[in-house]
Amino acid sequence: MNEITTIRPSTPKDWETDQEVRWCPGCGDYAILKAVQRTMPELGVAPENTVFVSGIGCSSRFPYYMETYGFHTIHGRAPAVATGVKLANPELDVWIITGDGDALSIGGNHTMHLLRRNLDCQFLLFNNEIYGLTKGQYSPTSREGTRSPSTPFGSVDHPAKPCAFALGAGARFVARGIDVHKNLPSVLKAAHAHRGAAFVEIFQNCIVYNDEVFEPFTAKPNAALGQLWVEHGQPMLFAGGAKGIALDRERLTLKVVDVADGDWQGAEVIVHNVTNRAIAHMLVEMPFGPFPMALGVLYDDPAPTFESAVAAQNRAASEGKSADLQKLVSKGQTWMVDKEPHKL
Amino acid sequence: MATAAHTLTPQEASAHPAPEAIVVRFAGDSGDGMQLTGGQFTLSTALAGNDLATFPDFPAEIRAPQGTLFGVSAFQINFGSAQIDTAGDQPDVLVAMNPAALKTNVDALKPGGLIIADEGEFGQRNLDKAKYAANPLEDGSLAKWQLLKLNISQLTLDAVKPFGLGNKEALRCKNMWTLGLALWMFDRDRQPLIDWLKAKFAKAPELAEANIAALNAGHAYGETAELGAMGISQRQVAAAPAEPGLYRTVTGAESISLGLVAGAQLASLPMFFGGYPITPASAILHTLSRYKEYDVTTFQAEDEIAAVASALGSAYAGSLGVTCSSGPGIALKTEAIGLAIMTELPLVIINAQRGGPSTGLPTKTEQSDLYQAVYGRNGDAPVPVIAARSAADCFDVAIEAVRIATQYMTPVMLLTDGYLQNAAEPWKVPDMSAYAPFPVTFHTEVPPEGEKFQPYGRDAKLKRPWVKPGTPGLLHRIGGIEKAQGSGNIDYSPANHQAMTNTRRDKVMGIEVPDQAIEQGQAGGKLVVVGWGSTYGPIAQAVRRARSRGHDVSHVHIRHIWPLPKNLGDLLKSYEHVLVPEMNTGQLKTLLRDQYLVDARSLTKVSGQPFRIAEIEAAIAQHIGADFDQEVPSDDSQLPSPEAVNP
């Protein structure tokens, strides 16, 4: 795809398909779909060069509703399919749509390797902390004690932390958003602007099987104290600027500090730096409760991408060589038979 | 077998001294370099113009404990002045580098055959490890064979002394000393090997020189040590008749890789190969990863599932997607193969079969994944299946797999096995201009205003269009959920699922495959021996021998396992008896019975070893009620008994 295509200006409507959306009424997925469709016209990309690849689960129906190319694959394997798509055609803009079970349970292995390889794509993990499509079993991100059809007495295993997992796997972009929050498009835009695997965890409410599980920080009255929206170069303030995040130098951890009269410098509130991996690690490990939920772009420090490295090596190894098939089959130690050795 | 070598006519055969064939087996510790020795001997044999077939047989452990029975690695080569189809039933010569190698291999040796043993390795410790109560080189237990005991270890140490190597490194040259002696025995030129050693050890010239010295010493030993007095003389095996042209040796893994590259070029597609290391399939990944200038991208995935899923993703994006594995890996790929069937994307899946189930026998050969290939998926999930018969044949079969996949938009399963992967044979280098291209045309035509693009619209062959993402005006979504005929929209309705299931079946069953040919014999008659895959060699030889005795036996070898050739049913029904030798418990036999209601009978073998000609001859004799005067006695002594290996 080397010809230059002029991108037609589009509206969110242009990114909608004629397919009937089949999520439960009130599902957070609707809000995410709208946010993505609102974001696309602002990215300067052509629908025909855009591919949505998904796995299995409620979230993974997403590609059917995007007027782009789309591949609804099998459970957990979207990252692997997307890797093949991107290696075959690096010009394509690849979005992976997945959920907590798809990406961290059955597909955990592929998620890890996609991130460490740093394939250029947007990886949107809809985290609802439950298995929706299979009717409500607990998921790898469900909190301890989650009662579900498969854990009637409460789950006993420790939940996975998606963003911590992503950083541990070597992700170079980690962000968080909330399905219904107005900031989601800006998080998606930042993810798209990042060259490499952009990991975005989106808290998504499952209205049927896990309703209000994120209310402690998403509900209007809880938002101020429960949400810390970080921004590069800005102090980490929340509660309308009355509180901030500072470094506890003795214990080398983060701490919540009170900010009086806007004097965040005096309170030693940290200024967010998206390229600081150490801060990112601390932000994703911040326990909710004593701390607010860190949201927005937590980490963004690009590195060379997998598909560009593969393409560069393919180019370098091919340099000065021809694709002469006859030459290839004639390689190695050969010998000529001039005539039938047995004379009749 | 050299595929281009023609079969001797009776006139040709009588015009010459009886064609000669010799079987040599090199056996030693897995660290003794027997595979390398065998490989180099193979090359020298090919350069001498003999036809040949080889059988590398090695343990699953990379370096099994030294001197143990289970750590023995062997390489057998059959070469001669006539067409060679198998690696040989029984060796004429056994080179045994230690007691364990002798014990596990000597029973296979022909009576009167020659044993060359390194007596330097027959100390008490090694005898104990091989569970010998007494030294077999001394106690007369090898009396029915000719025994040449040499202290190869000491002779090698003496030969390489000037190079100042440590004892361990010096002893590593033992295999070259042995090879030198073998080259003398068969009057071979040492120069190609010397050139090869110089190139291999370019960075360590002293190692090159030491190995060359060992090689020369072994050769000189043959010349000077009056071996003639012991009845051992030099033998010259005349070159085998072969069509004029350029030849090389290939293993199945090389041949398949070349065939895939050729197939991709003939289809005008870039190739994407997703693989995950597994024995014995990895060699294809290794080979292809060096062919980048042929528009080949190789990807070592994190697991078997990612290997096939990435290949499918690449196919979606417009590449020739290829993946390969062995049985356990194919099992893991199964769900993604189902997705390829549902989304009707081209994909080539190679299964280098090995002994199963589960981990089974990783380095041993078997043909027991036929059911898996034809039937082994959830749902009604038809996949075309084809099988290669020889290392050289892998080339054409790989091209055929690419052709079917791209011409019908379907995954294709290509079956080889551990024997084919590793075995080497001479190959007449094909003239690539003789292959007709089958270029893929991607669909780019935008439907007229008011009409919607039909991603599941079909042509006369029931093939759906292949659209690359990036194509304007043809945006669409595909996936694993049942979809409506034509539009491809999600559709769970009963009539639609019935129709789509039928269509998927009809498309695969409608694939054009060549009519079944008869290898030897004719339609109709007393007995037909039906084979598939790597059993070609022993079946062809056994049938040839039976026919030369005047028996009414034909040979049919099936390449297209699914769908089967249209004339196959009538052909099989034209014979009184149908015998199906397979390295499994009767899988093709069951398939043939199911498809044609023919009374096919099995000859089965799952010992991890290829069939011997004699075994098939015996089965033929039984089926036609003849009493063959067998030139090669049929017994199972080729295989070490389980007790011998695991006492």
Structural class of chain B: alpha/beta
Query: What is the CATH C-level name of the largest domain in chain A?
Result: Alpha Beta
Q: What is the CATH superfamily of the largest domain in chain B?
A: Pyruvate-ferredoxin oxidoreductase, PFOR, domain III
Which strand-content bin applies to the residues of chain A?
Answer: 15-25%
| The CATH architecture of the largest domain in chain B | 3-Layer(aba) Sandwich
Rg calculated over all Cα atoms of chain A: 24 Å
Structural class of chain A: alpha/beta
Q: What's the level 1 CATH class of the largest domain in chain B?
A: Alpha Beta
Tell the overall outline of chain B: globular
CATH superfamily heading of the largest domain in chain A: Thiamin diphosphate (ThDP)-binding fold, Pyr/PP domains
**Sheet with the most strands, sense and barrel status of chain B:** 7 strands, mixed
Write down the CATH topology of the largest domain in chain A.
Rossmann fold
Low-confidence stretches of chain A: none
The helix content of chain A, as a percent range, equals 25-40%
Q: Can you name the CATH architecture of the largest domain in chain A?
A: 3-Layer(aba) Sandwich
What's a quick, concise take on this entry?
The complex is a heterodimer of chains A (344) and B (647). By secondary structure, chain A is of the alpha/beta class.
Explained architecture:
Chain A has 344 residues and is α/β, with parallel strands linked by helices. Chain A folds into two domains: 255 residues, Thiamin diphosphate (ThDP)-binding fold, Pyr/PP domains (Rossmann fold), CATH 3.40.50; 40 residues, no CATH class. Chain A contains eleven helices and twelve strands. Chain A has an eight-stranded mixed beta sheet, sandwiched between helices. In chain A, strands 8-9-10 form a three-stranded antiparallel beta sheet. The longest helix of chain A is centred in the last third of the chain and has 13 residues. The radius of gyration of chain A is 24 Å and the shape is globular. With 647 residues, chain B is an alpha/beta fold. Chain B folds into four domains: 226 residues, Pyruvate-ferredoxin Oxidoreductase, domain 3 (3-Layer(aba) Sandwich), CATH 3.40.920.10; 188 residues, Rossmann fold (3-Layer(aba) Sandwich), CATH 3.40.50; 72 residues, no CATH class; 107 residues, Rossmann fold, CATH 3.40.50.920. In chain B, strands 9-8-10-11-13-12-18 form a seven-stranded mixed beta sheet, with helices on both faces. In chain B, strands 2-3-1-4-5-6 form a six-stranded mixed beta sheet, sandwiched between helices. In chain B, helix 18 links the parallel strand 16 and strand 17. Chain B is globular and about 90 Å long. Chain B starts with 9 loop residues before the first helix and ends with a helix. The relative contact order of chain B is 0.10. The N terminus and C terminus of chain B are likely disordered. Chain B: GO terms for molecular function: 2-oxoglutarate synthase activity. Chain B: Its EC number is 1.2.7.11, 1.2.7.3. Chain B: This is 2-oxoglutarate ferredoxin oxidoreductase subunit alpha. Chain B: Pfam families: PFOR_II, POR, POR_N. Chain B: Keywords: Oxidoreductase.
